[in-house]
Amino acid sequence: MVGIRYTIWAFAASMPQAIAQSCANINPAQAATFASGYSGRVVMNGLRTPRGLIFDNEGNMLTTEQGGYGVRYIQLNDYGGTNVCVKSSKQLIQDSSINHGIALTPDGKKLFVSSLTTVWAWDYDGTTGTVSNKKTVVQGMNNGGFHRSRTLVIPRAQPDTLLVQRGSQDNVDTPAAQQSTGRSMIRAFKISSILNAPADYLAGEVLAWGLRNTVGVGEHPNGGIWSVDNGVDDMQRAGRDIHHTNPCEELNYHGQVNNTADPERGGHHGYPECYAVWDPSVIPNAAQLGLTVGTPFVMGNPGGSNTDAMCQARKAPKLCFPSHTAPLDIKFNRNGTAAYIPFHGSWNKSPPDGFRLSRVNWNPATGMPVEPSTSTTAAINIMYNANTGTCPNRCFRPVNVAFSPGGKLFMTSDTTNEIWVIGGPINEA
């Protein structure tokens, strides 16, 4: 009995120490302001321009580093809430051409990473943090250095499919009006096929086109594919400069990925001729022409076949966000009640705008946003820079977000070389 009592006492005595374990505080490079109920802390700093962010099935974090490193493998200690810190970190793949896109098959065995021109695949072991058997799977995506990101998504509803995004060649890429350029679109590839023989980008199925620079692509729990698009810079209409508040940044829908008959699939979303209104007050004759928030319209001088009616016959955005705020990702919480969108921030307006993480409420029953397409308040800011006048040089700049297997939300900030964990009602309706 004495031995038993001693064992119980020793175990009980050790409990306060275990419970009290916590992570060392890392001061953020730039302080963040949080909406009521939300909080956050820096999990890791000292990275090299972190961009893409995913978790493997073991709960390890993988990020692409645009600053010349490649892919980093990070093991975490999680003591509850935002009390999360790095247990170990190592370079998984060294390749200075890797710049953004990263995805894992749902079984956690195949890792896909992209560069400006190419998508590669590796066999991946999350337990040991190792890769092997590198293969080129998609190629032929050189844009001459403009819009370099190639976002990758493997939908859980269609796990043999790899979605690959490609942006425009220029601010206004006139040839992108033809699908044959392979620019400004999202294409779908059958993974089992491209692992056997690499495919040219033009060989993929067009899931959506007419998308200027859709860096953010995500899957709703119902299998619906959504994206956020970065609108054109320096916009004019009928001889008037309207670029400061137009066009909007778009939230677009591309149908359920496992339904080839979905009417949204393969849709043309307007670029390079068409955009959507954010601020009708500065557009000449907007009221007479019926131009309101979210209405597609033509840039420049309407005439001939280049008309607003032509634009309105194409796919309109489901929601709009303020111009030049640069949304770069969209991820849904586990019950489909919210999407989280990081806005990287503007260079084409003064004062600067964006530089924040926002929540958009969703109706899980319909699979659609709660707010109508004409809303200007759908994006609820939960983490932001209090003074965007100091941006971009003295701000955090969100790039990607990712949910851990346990449902926690993490975010990369490329200018401050940090990864944050965000606390609050992330998975609540």
Automatic annotation (TrEMBL):
Domain Pyrroloquinoline quinone-dependent pyranose dehydrogenase beta-propeller: 33-423
Gene3D superfamilies named among the record's database cross-references: TolB, C-terminal domain
PROSITE patterns to which the protein is assigned, alphabetical: PROKAR_LIPOPROTEIN (PS51257)
InterPro entries: 6-blade_b-propeller_TolB-like, Beta-prop_PDH, Quinoprot_gluc/sorb_DH_b-prop
Protein name per Swiss-Prot or TrEMBL: Soluble quino protein glucose dehydrogenase
Organism annotation: Sporormia fimetaria CBS 119925
